[in-house]
Amino acid sequence: MAENSGFLAAIPIWLKKIGIVILFFICYLIFVGGIIYGAEVILSKQLVVSDATFREMVKTDSKYMLLNMFFNFSATVLLIFIFWQFVIKKSFPEIGFIDNSWLKNLVMGMLCGVIAISLGFLLCIMFGFVKVQSLAFSPPDFTNYILIFAMVAIAEELMTRGLMLSTLMDGMNDYLALLIVALIFGAMHLFNENVTTLSFINICVAGIFLGISYIHNRSLWFPIGLHFTWNFFQGPIFGYEVSGHKNISIVEQTIHGNDTFTGGEFGFEGSIIALPIMIVAILAIHLYYLRESSILNNKQ
Questions:
Q1: Which long-range contacts (CB under 8 A, 24 or more apart) does 50-53 make?
Q2: Is the pTM of this model over 0.90?
Q3: In this predicted model, what pLDDT tens digit does every residue of 229-272 receive, in sequence order?
Q4: Which of 111, 128, 108, 121 minimizes the C-alpha distance to 277?
Q5: What does R_g of the chain's alpha carbons equal in angstroms?
Q6: What is the separation of C-alpha 167 from the centre of its chain, rounded to a whole number of angstroms?
Q7: What 3-state class would DSSP assign to 57?
Q8: What is the dihedral of CA 67, 69, 71, 74, to 10 degrees?
Q9: Interval 163-178: pLDDT, tens
Q10: How many CB atoms lie within 10 A of CB 46?
């Protein structure tokens, strides 16, 4: 037993933290993947359709997408809670919910998402890459998408910025941890439909975009707000695919030109136009929180 303790003690802390993240990811694939598959089998039998047909229904009907996302969200949050409490051994609020300025950070994140994606949409219209064909509003779909993308934002931020980033930050340089988690975030989207090399790069940069505030304050409120509005306005409002997934939207648009500029069927996240917008936003967020930290330190 003493030999094992000596061996474990000799492992660098950064390597232990990477091991914890890898262990979590394996548990995620097995547990959440199993729950989702089981739910699909049960629901497809209830609806008397094949598994493949049900998966198509999830893609095209917001109420089935919401139902599927509920199981995904519930399983993901449950696993994160168990892992955080019993493996990392911290109280759950410490994952990123302890924030005296939580409402301010949430609203700022939401505004940042709206401004960034709206700027991209306007630039695409100005350069002729997007044309608005019509406008339509479906209250049931709109409501369903609010719930869907809220669950996506909370679950993905809990997993990537909350559990993974905070764990790695405890064992290595904060910026290196941010880069590693951004690459993991990009890799998580590699199996999405219509993914390209450019969209993978953009999703990795989006991981930095979403995580840059967390390395300053370890608060999830800003990235949750940012993640929600970026996705929600991109898809159900402006009519882009969201990381390859099509949604019913208020704006019915058509794209024109090379996929490098339009994003093609992956959506705006596959467009070269998204890259400078996110880079400028990353720098702005980073400088803002550096300034906030400096002001706070001067007061103390």
A1: none
A2: yes
A3: 999 999 999 999 999 888 999 999 999 999 999 999 999 999 99
A4: 121
A5: 20
A6: 17
A7: helix
A8: -130
A9: 999 999 999 999 999 9
A10: 9
